[in-house]
Amino acid sequence: MKYLLLAPTLVFFLLFTLWPIIKVVEMSCYQTNFIVTRFVGLQNYVDLFNNEAFIQSIKNSLLYITILPLLNVIVSVSITFLIADLSKKWQDISKILIYIPVLGGGIILAQVWRWVFAIDGLMNWILSLFHIAPVYWFGNSVTSIVVICVIVVIASFGGYIIMLLAALTSIDKSIYEAAKIDGASDFQIKIKIILPLIKSTIALIYLLSMIASLQIFEYIYALVPQQYAATITYNIYVTGFKNSKWGLASAQAVILMVITFILSYFQRKIGNESNK
Amino acid sequence: MKVINKIILVIIFILLFIPIYFMLIGSFQDIYGVSAMPPRIIPKNIIIDNYEYILKYNFGIWSINTIIVTVSTILLSILIATTSGYVFSVYNFRFKNILWSLLLIQMMIPRISMLIPLFVIIKDLKLSGSLIATILPNSISPMEMYLARNYFESIPKSIIESARIDGANEWQILKMIIIPVSKPIISVIALFSGVFALQDYIWQMLVLVDESKQTLLVGIMKLVMRRGSDANDANLGVNPVGRSFAAGILLLFPLVVLFLIGNKYFIEGLQGAVKE
User: Fold this and answer.
1) pLDDT for the residue B1
2) CB distance from A152 to chain B under 8 Å?
3) Which residue from B131, B13, B115 is spatially nearest to B62, judged by alpha carbons?
């Protein structure tokens, strides 16, 4: 009975999780465009060290994972505190409204972001009100990455806020009362008492946001004309699907897999230790 | 204090919805309407050309394909997540913990690292270009299995035990006890997988080459997609901005409907991810 129930999961797991993982490692040892295939051992990995586009995408990705998780945590925690003080009706409506940009995340809202950050777009018009010359937002690395970070945060904090609000409801109300009687201000209670209590949820959000920032694809695909803001994910797409260098793309995919594993491992370790 | 919270929150919501609002009204305007700066907050003359442009192509077939992909992904996801979640919460067997960690491993693997080998596997399975290829790999989701297991763990074991003592067999327990109380978790899985299927641009774009096999996401985007920057839209004599806005609205619509139908369960599900 239990094996019968488990059968579909196991079939799907073997075909669409385990097989790809083994396959990608195997592919990374070949040079192939599906017409000519040649075993090259670890040559693909060696080549990557001299591959400028790859090195650039690693640097960009490091920037994203430094900025984005922190920004996401700060924004979502602040807005969560704003919402948490309000009545249940306000909270319920907020949860719905705040999640709609998440639904449009990726390619859908990229359509309007292009207009907002076009050379003659909304953002430059706002700047012109302050007599600032128009900026070519997607014309260089720095502004491209900043804009992508802002767009990504807007399309992701809704989900994190819902998780944080859930973590808040599980806190015992008597803690607030006790702290208030002892004369703690509202702000003190939030920083010194509540924040430490939802630490594990914050750590989870940080981890999720970190993994997500390695995977940014649609915005770069739709908005940035050159590889200015490319993540590793985008570079893998270009190498494999556009340039048909499948072995090289697989080697990058394996490296990305290893990076993500290491990051998740340390993040969990730090999270576990701070919980003790 | 609460008044200030509400004011700040309302301002945040207004900022969040500015892009979506301009996308909506821009989709009903001509090229001069959408490129006018300062932007028109109320559209001058409403036109539906942008929608007509999109709808006159294979909109019907694409809609049917989208429904097929979304519904099949939902049904398979429900099957896989509920059965595995149930087995892992109720039964004990050898290697249970190891198997569970293996099943969840995909959570820590970036999507693109899977897509490169999956593209080849799909080819090997002779599924290239078919809708099935976009359905199957998305039907196994560690997050959904995790939520399902959590849910079934919360059903008291004593109920199952006493049914067993009364002589009920495993199928009867499933039918009489488990299935009747499973509606919330099934809704959660349905929503998560449905939203995922409706947002999965990268994979659908890579797999669905044939126009008659495309989903709305791929087909519509191909009609309106302009990559990178474009300062000279108005010179083209057509209205690529308005069309891309109309595309965004058409694609956002089903997601918002799905979310509003089940937002109660959706939020419950996200909250479930936080519980230990």
Assistant:
1) 65
2) no
3) B131
